[in-house]
Amino acid sequence: MSSPTDGASRTFDAALIAARTITDVFPADTRYRLLTNDFEPFANTLKTKAEVQEALAKFRLGSKIRTADEIVSRFNRLGNERDIFWLSDFQQSTFGKTLQPDSSRRFHLVPFQITAKSNIYIDTAFLDNPFAIGGEQNTLSLRLVNDGDADRTQLNVRLVVDGLQVGTTTTDIPANSEKEVSFVLNNNQAGIHQAVISFGDTPITFDNEFYLSLNFANRIKIVQITEQNSSSVVKKIYANNQLFDLINRVGSNIDYSQLAQADLIVLNELERLDQSLLAVLSDFMEAGGTVLLIPAANPDVASYQSLLPSIMVSKQEKLLELTKPDSKNPFFNNVFQEQPSQMAMPLVRNSITWGDDRQAILKQQDDLPYLSLFQQQGRLYVMGGPMQSTHGTFLNHALVVPVMYRIAAFSRRSDKQLYQLLSQNLLSLSADSLNDNQLITLKGETEVTPAQRNVNKQVLIDLAGLDLEPGHYQATIQNDTLSTIAFNMTKSESIMKSLSRNELTDFFGSSADVYDLDSSSSSEIAEVLKENYQGVSLWKYALILSILSVLIEVMLLRFWK
Q1: 362 and 248 share one domain
Q2: Percent of the chain scoring above 70 in pLDDT
Q3: Transmembrane residues, as ranges (predicted)?
């Protein structure tokens, strides 16, 4: 309702004028119940004309969306008023599809038709490589939508990161269509960055900015558990201290508190998994953690089966070549600069097997899996054999680093969501070290401490009922910032089509009054309201007719002979 309408700068302003005029039409002792999409406590009691007009003077545009059914249900809980004046743009995309009208109520619908019939908005934004680490190239893509009947040419789109413009592009968007544009990000991105995508689109401007949070802050926490004589390949691969926080532990000396804080636990050639470790691993994966199982050459398969019941001892004796990786597998997105079909593949020999897996990340030439992913609440990666020269050349192959990096990248449990829609009622944040009595505060345009609860090392934040504006907010505990969240309007607000008069009648029933307001003039609105609600006033005409009749009678008595 920030869009323009005939006779007023904004539809919202025209609605305020109409609301004040309604209170002028009725007798001075009339009481009103004033309800907005915020469902504020102000509507809980009846108000005088003066109280309503004072409240209207303080109203501001808000971002809360309600369907018609939600609004009617709210009225039903608040009171039993018979007459309801409903002032709205009656936006089709947010109004809902069902309504149970109440025959005891009479609806007076006051639609405000906006003059703008088209709008450009961002449908979605995403990173082409959301798990990029180690200087991998990344691209920010966004999908623009032209919601209108006119082509849009030379639309300039800008990307600003931390207050500095880092990219700009110009695009054309045909009528009633969408267009994807992209920005290449710096390979050395690190830390948390506040990004804003913006473009010029008038007269509807509320959705011309789209907020993003680019979170490349935390190193990936990895705990490797090994036997005394296990291979050191994993330790070498994850030796980059800028990317990984690697902790090495021997199976006989495990600090279980460190496991709960990890993103990835690597079980490297453990011959046997004891029950205490298995219990911790079960809780870890239920909380969303990732485990990589690299088997020993001669493992205790019975203990492995507690992680994956289908694991069996492999009877493979000869080395077999791996098949070419499937570049269409999401695991390998942005990994290969050339087709993997031109790559010489390593030889491997499995010490365990787990049956057929058509979705395996890596397979042998005999079609048995060498690396598979099993995903429920968390992730379990299972490798077919140890990283020893006796079991193949995978440990020395060029493929081992990108595969191990990708497993680590997918295990990252820090908050990677680019943005949150204001229509979403729940927000989940990682909180491994948060005490039960500590509360997260959102600081941005406003500062709020929402209702929240801890579930499996995650904090679920209830956003319902909060008056948040689009923009960047810091999730903080006291003086520490956990993350930056970007909030945006839901895209349904940007679809401008309104319900027609016939559609409103069908929606509310034939007993509903639909007002036609072609002006924002309070005097003209008053006349329309009086005519629609009170009917055509005939007493003036009756008085004139009575006086005219008396005059005629006097004239007849005086002059008729």
Answers
A1: yes
A2: 89
A3: 538-560
Residues 481 and 519 in one domain: no
- The token duo for 234 is 């994993």
**549 assigned to some structural domain:** no
- Residues 411, 371 contacting (CB under 8 angstroms): no
Q: What is the percent of the chain where pLDDT is above 90?
A: 36
449 and 524 part of one domain: no
Average pLDDT for 44-61 = 93
Interhelix angle for 49-58 vs 11-25, to 10°?
170
Q: Which domain holds residue 473?
A: 119-217+415-493
Closest CA to 1 of 34, 37, 55, 33: 37
| Residues near 552 by beta carbon (within 8 Å), at least 6 away in sequence | none
Higher pLDDT, 311 or 137: 311
Query: What tokens were used for 70?
Result: 């939600």
348 pLDDT higher than 70? yes
Q: Are 230 and 256 in contact (CB under 8 A)?
A: no
The set of long-range contacts for 187-193, using a CB threshold of 8 Å and a minimum separation of 24, is 187/135, 187/136, 187/137, 187/138, 188/135, 189/138, 189/214, 189/216, 190/216, 190/217, 191/216, 191/217, 192/216, 192/217, 192/483, 192/484, 193/161, 193/162
| Measured distance CA(352)–CA(304) in Å, rounded | 10
Total Cβ atoms within 10 A of residue 298: 10
Report pLDDT for 416: 65
Q: At 237, which CATH number?
A: 3.40.50.880
- 208 and 310 housed in the same domain: no
Residues 181-191, mean pLDDT to the nearest whole number = 78
Look at residue 339 and tell me if it is in a domain. Answer: no
Same domain, residue pair 401 and 515 = no
Indicate if the pLDDT at residue 414 is higher than 60. Answer: no
Q: Do 435 and 351 lie in a common domain?
A: no
Residues 229 and 320 placed together within one structural domain of the fold: yes
Q: Is residue 360 part of a domain?
A: yes
What is the distance between the alpha carbons of residues 434 and 456, in angstroms, rounded to a whole number?
11
Per-residue pLDDT of 249-282, as tens digits, reads: 888 788 888 888 888 999 999 999 999 999 999 9
Q: Are residues 288 and 350 in the same domain?
A: yes
Q: Which of 354, 385, 411 is the last residue of a domain?
A: 411
- For residue 52, is pLDDT > 90? yes
CATH code for position 98? 3.40.50
Q: Read off the amino acid at residue 47.
A: K
Secondary structure (3-state) at 294: strand
Please state whether the peptide bond connecting residue 325 to the residue before it is cis, i.e. omega within 30 degrees of 0: no
Q: What is the CATH number of the domain that holds 428?
A: 2.60.40.10
pLDDT score of 351:
93
**Into how many domains does the chain fold?**
3
Which of the 8 DSSP states describes residue 439?
Answer: -
Q: Which of 197-206, 380-389, 418-427 has the highest mean pLDDT?
A: 380-389
